[in-house]
Design a protein that fits this description.
The complex is a heterodimer of chains A (416) and B (343). Chain A is 50% helix and 15% strand. Chain A has 416 residues and is α/β, with parallel strands linked by helices. Chain A has a domain of 231 residues: Alpha-Beta Complex (Spore Coat Polysaccharide Biosynthesis Protein SpsA, Chain A), CATH 3.90.550. In chain A, the strands form two sheets. In chain A, strands 5-10-6-7-4-1-2-3-11 form a nine-stranded mixed sheet, sandwiched between helices. A two-stranded antiparallel ribbon of chain A has the order 8-9. In chain A, strand 2, helix 4 and strand 3 form a beta-alpha-beta unit. The N and C termini of chain A lie far apart (57 Å). With 343 residues, chain B is an alpha+beta fold. Chain B has two domains: 159 residues, Orthogonal Bundle (Helix Hairpins), CATH 1.10.287; 85 residues, no CATH class. In chain B, 67% of the residues lie in helices and 16% in strands. In chain B, strand 3 and strand 4 form a beta hairpin. In chain B, helix 2 packs antiparallel against helix 3, helix 2 packs antiparallel against helix 4 and helix 2 packs across helix 5. The radius of gyration of chain B is 56 Å and the shape is rod-shaped. Chain B starts with a helix and ends in a 7-residue tail after the last strand. The relative contact order of chain B is 0.14. The model of chain B has no long low-confidence stretch (mean pLDDT 87). Classes of the chains: A alpha/beta (416), B alpha+beta (343). Chains A and B meet through helix 15 of A and helix 1 of B.
Chain lengths: 416, 343
Amino acid sequence: MLALANLFVLLSVLVLVVRYIWGALLKWFHKGMHAFPKDYDLQPTVSVLLPNYNEGPAVYETIKSIRESDYPTHKLEIICVDDGSVDDSYQWMIKASRDFPNVQVHRNRVNIGKNKTVLRALEFSQSDIVLCIDSDTVFKKDCIRELAASFADPTIGAVGGAVGLRNVNESIVTKFQTIQYYISFYLGKIPENWTRTVGCISGCLFAVRRQIMLDLHAKLDARHWFGIPTSEGEDRHLSHQIVLAGWGTVINLDAQCYTTAPAKLPQYFKQQLRWRRSAIRDLFWTMRTIPQHTKLHWNAVYVFLLLPLTSLLALFRIGVGFLEAPLWWTDARLLLLYMVTVLVVNQGIKKHSPEQTVSNPVALAVFGVWWIVNTLFLTVLACFTLDGGSDWGTRDKKAIEEPMIVAEFGTAVSGD
Amino acid sequence: MRQLFYKSYVNLYRVTAVVVLYGMFAAIAAYALLMGFYSVNKSWVAPVLISPSNDKILSLTAQMVASQQTLDSLNLSTKSLREARAEMVQRRAVLQGLNEQLELAAARQKSDNITSGEELTRLATQKHADLRNTQSMLSDLDQGESDVERNLKAGLITRSEALAQKTTLAQFRNAYTDAQVSEVVLKDSVRQKMSTDLSVVDTMSKAVELRSELAQLDLNIKTGDDQIGNNKVQIENIQKAIRTTQDNPYFVAAQSTAAVEMAFMPFDNQNATSVDAPVYDCMLSFAWCTKVGTVSRIFSEEERATNPIFKTEIRGTFIQLDLTEHEAVKSKTLFVGRKPLLF
């Protein structure tokens, strides 16, 4: 049992080394291997698909930040679809449609979930490229230009960007996520970029050729888990489907946006649980479709199979660890390792993305314990709650105190 | 058909999920409870069954045999040394007495010599003076002899009278010579009395030999004493080590033909333990306890063991248990003094 556990650890370490060491080597020493051509004159038409549920005034900020981008206005439309918010989001969207050009606002009569809301927004799009975003995300001015330029290579089907946090220092939870995001985007995804097989382009900044979306529409719409409709992890699933369809998926680290991360531990826990569920679903789906993956670059097997498998392997190893030495996690060396990692990463952030610098990073060492919670409990919980999940994740259902005024601001209003 | 499969699968999955998740939460709760309980509790001990074939016992037995052999050798050596010392002391006493007698005799002889020497010197001086007088008279003898010849020739005396007179004169001369010889002998006696002669040297040589032998004996006795002292210290050390070893749980187990029931008691928990204190065995390692025996002995030697709950290395000592329920020795932990949760 112990030997098996150690073998798993070896495999996990190998996978992580490939992910981070190989990522670092590619990033700093072999830029050409993971770079891809960009054509800033290409300027295809872009539809921003903005599904919304209970975002309140943040959705207005999001629309505003898109409209303030340096992409030509006539080539950029924003399609907002409200999934029956119970707060004043819809009013803010209507207001945005009045304040900014090329903004469509639609509303679902009933709550149908994020996945279907995005697909519904797609139906209103006529552009070459559709850009799926989260309604609490703001963008750098050149973000859309960078994404659009990345489609210069005709084999690339989808492009993502680097996601940072709007609320870096709001709480220790957001500080920790800042470090997580940075490691994930600036090291973790680089080896995936190398073979154009990014396994999960973040849903808050996901640009894809509209034709691909249309081709996959039926599959995405019919997505289910043993008959139970599934909406969680649509970004991971869409990325995976695009790769399986033979297209390349890449991350353009120059296309940057900022999202609002959960500031409290329970919200963060729920978010991580959703993500873990989607990763496990995707792993099982990968295992079911292994023959299709064998036609891809071997790195795709690493991305879609080995990488998520390490979570399960780590779970096993940690379980054995608790049986061998129940207090192993109190080892001060682990704390030291976390402290050093956090300090080093924060130095990197300070140098390359100063606005994302974390204050008092040493305190984040306490999140060393999170790694155990994350691996041990989240994975088990996710494995056995695959039949559940929330469509809109951390967005709470807030009761509205005043009746909504819909028609007053409407410029292009529709409702089903 | 597919819908039916999906429904069955999901139902089975949900049942499994409920079991696994509740199991996981129960495991987490049990882990937290157990960790918390053993962090706070100060009366637990970890039972150990020490059998005579235990590696430590075998090693200890070998050590004990070696120590006993060394002790026997040292005792034998000490006994021999003591006997030798007694003989040397006795011999020394004899030699010392002889030496004292020799010194006394030498002193007396010296004193006598001095007295006799002075007397002889005086007599030699007197003898010398007498001889001088005699010598002056001898020149008169030559004259007397001439007178005898003249008187004979003159016929004043007869030949026989002349012979008688000459014989008398010759006797005088012989007597003088004898006196001279006596003077020489006397002077020699004086010299003998007043200076060191060979016999004295011989006596002194013997005295020196005697003293040297005494000094050698003193040295040997001291060396023997040192050796005996050294042996004594070694014997005490070995005896102490043996006594310490005898206060070792493994030694106790070595003396027993069957396995001995012991328990490892961490230092943190030693306040709860005393001889005759009751020992409890609990279900789930913390509750529903029953008395299973008492503590019969507390050893003082430090031991190191692995904490049966935390799996970390801890320091403590062994205690010997007198169990009425022998199966209790197989439990992960026992509690000494009282039930940990009062039930």
